[in-house]
Design a protein that fits this description.
Number of strands: 8
CATH class of the largest domain: Alpha Beta
Order of helices and strands: HEHEHHHEEHEHHEHEEH
Number of domains: 2
CATH superfamily of the largest domain: Alkaline Phosphatase, subunit A
Bound molecules: zinc ion
Radius of gyration: 22 Å
Number of helices: 10
CATH architecture of the largest domain: 3-Layer(aba) Sandwich
Helix content: 25-40%
Structural class: alpha/beta
Strand order of the largest sheet: 4-3-5-1-6-7-2-8
Largest sheet: 8 strands, mixed
Shape: globular
Length: 309
């Protein structure tokens, strides 16, 4: 009888230690939903900027974000390494199997979307901001018209298709400083345009990268001048790289893209260890804004970018 009591006592203790262990683990692991970490999040996407370009191009503004932030030059596009499918994945926190945009110029999902948001589109980060931060402003300024098909145009405060990258940046900066939006997406068409015309490893391609960098520099100095940078996080990335005069294939030159986080509360550790796929971008933005992600989203927030103070 006494032995049975001892056995039960030990069993109870083991059970208790397991439970307290589980509680301790829960306390130590980062919460799935964060609090809002910056007043403004800006996503800048440079079309056709392969990670390989960082070896040859002189890009002081982008380097400034890398040196004072966190980055990976081994992030990956989804397949195929084409435009619309990747912009959709970036904004929609999921791959083409779920959002259904599968081609370079998809105007609507070739594969029916697995779920539909309130505007009839697979929910993008814009939907999340709209429903969970209804008072905040959000918008998109983009140089390639194809972007208009992969986000909820009806929900945004800015829907601007610039005829050039210059106008796209100018308009985005105006929107940022005047409206103080919580989320802004900026799409720049270069160096993709030059890559298709003259080659993704041509001198002109690298010049286009350098010019794009100067536009990013304009945006940064505008944000600094208006003191907005103090409360802003920028994520800078690309949809795909390129090989010869095209992309869409399975070489690393086409698939490996830069992924940089810079700004308020972002660690200045430099190189990240995480594996990043382009659908993690949407998930990271949701996390930085303290938004709950739809169950169907497959992206994971890149929490490694946060500084531990
Ligand atoms: Zn593209």
């Amino acid at each position: 009888m006494f032995q049975k009591f001892i056995k039960q006592f030990i069993l109870l203790n083991i059970l208790l230690s397991f439970t307290s262990c589980a509680i301790a683990q829960k306390k130590n692991s980062p919460p799935e939903i964060n609090k809002q970490l910056a007043q403004h999040i800006i996503l800048i996407g440079s079309d056709g900027l392969g990670a390989y370009a960082f070896e040859k191009a002189k890009i002081p503004s982008i380097r400034k974000m890398m040196n004072n932030g966190s980055y990976s030059l081994k992030a990956r596009s989804v397949l195929p390494s084409s435009s619309a499918v990747n912009w959709a994945s970036m904004l929609m926190g999921s791959g083409p199997e779920l959002h259904g945009f599968t081609e370079w110029d998809s105007r609507e999902p070739e594969l029916p979307s697995a779920i539909l948001g309130e505007t009839g589109l697979y929910p993008s980060i814009f939907s999340l901001v709209d429903s969970q931060m209804p008072k905040e402003k959000k918008g998109a300024s983009y140089a390639w018209g194809g972007i208009r098909n992969v986000f909820e145009r009806d929900l945004v405060d800015l829907d601007y298709n610039g005829s050039t990258d210059e106008k796209t940046i100018e308009h985005a900066l105006e929107f940022l400083t005047e409206e103080k939006p919580v989320f802004t997406f900026i799409h720049l068409d270069e160096p993709d345009h030059t890559g298709h015309k003259l080659g993704f490893d041509s001198d002109e391609y690298y010049l286009a990268v350098e010019h794009m960098d100067s536009l990013v520099g304009q945006l940064l100095s505008g944000l600094e001048k208006s003191k907005m940078m103090e409360n802003t996080i920028i994520i800078f990335t690309a949809d795909h790289g390129g090989n010869r005069k095209s992309h869409g294939g399975k070489t690393l030159k086409e698939v490996e893209i830069p992924w940089i986080a810079y700004g308020k509360g972002i660690s200045n550790q430099g190189k990240l260890n995480n594996t990043i796929v382009t659908y993690d971008t949407g998930a990271t933005i949701a996390y930085l804004l303290g938004l709950q992600m739809p169950e169907s989203w497959r992206g994971k927030p890149v929490k490694e970018i946060l500084s531990r103070e």
